[in-house]
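seq:
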Amino acid sequence: MILLLVSAFVSVTACSQQIQDGVRKVKVLNYPDCLELYNAHTSAILGHHVGGRVLQYSLNGREALYLDPKEALWQEKHSPDNPTVSAGRFDIGPEYLIPRRSELWSGRWKSEIIGPRSVRLTSPESESAGVQLVREFRLASDSSHLQCTQIIRNISRETKNWCHWSRTFAKHGGIAIVPLTPELSRLPNHYVMYRARGLVNFLPEDPNIRRNGKYLEITGPPAQPKLGMDSHAGWFAYQMPEDILFVKRYRTYPDRVYNDLASITISIWYPTADQIPACELEPIGPRFTIQPGEASAFTEHWWLLESSFSKSGKPDSIRIGRLVEKMTKSPDGGSEQK
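struct:
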């Protein structure tokens, strides 16, 4: 057995015998039989016990995701009624319209290997949402590129109008960089700030959010943690103190309906560390009109890149933009009806 220490709170025990090329079973906290996708420099560990998600995503031993240590309370036979769900979470929306869907969010999913460094996670059926979810993950053989595809299957007898909603918890303390598309924006300051009681501020100002040329920089927790952007650049990045840059790429559709409350394509939720030591990175997909028996899919492409953290809190967004364009590829697909 090999013991890999991933953080001060989380340990992973991995069997040295691989099941498939670049796939092996590991135990994370109390979660047995998780499937790890790995290559020489990158590891992505997938959990199916409490929702289908990425529990850990690391480059050369440096972890990008926040996995709440309270998840160690989970037990096979006596798990909590409302289990903690952290790290690489995915969901469907729109946030304020979709019904509760605990089977999808925290139910036990099915896990299966589908190829080299490739795993499929399948949810239980949700009667309230009328769908079943399938998530497929593929790690490149020679880079940190992790392809994450979520498929929404309509199992009901009614048309469903849901969208992709990613809710990834990255570790706290980083700087979010969002490239802007002013020619397509409806927002005067290129972002909105959600406030209590369902209010949305369309003219927000905050010292931790600033415009730097064609980039929006979120350097720390703002006055209200939930933000929304309508950028159609198709990527954003999160510069972490661990000197890694967490990049998400995905397709956007300027001519389609985005049915979140403020018609946003990105949300960043950045609370104070004492509330939760994470920053939530949320690509949002367009509305899918899914007929009974049909399905739709949306793909996010993740990368972890070597990139030095600015101790001044002023990132070089131009350098980061060039790094992203050089080291990652624009998706040639991602949102589609099946």
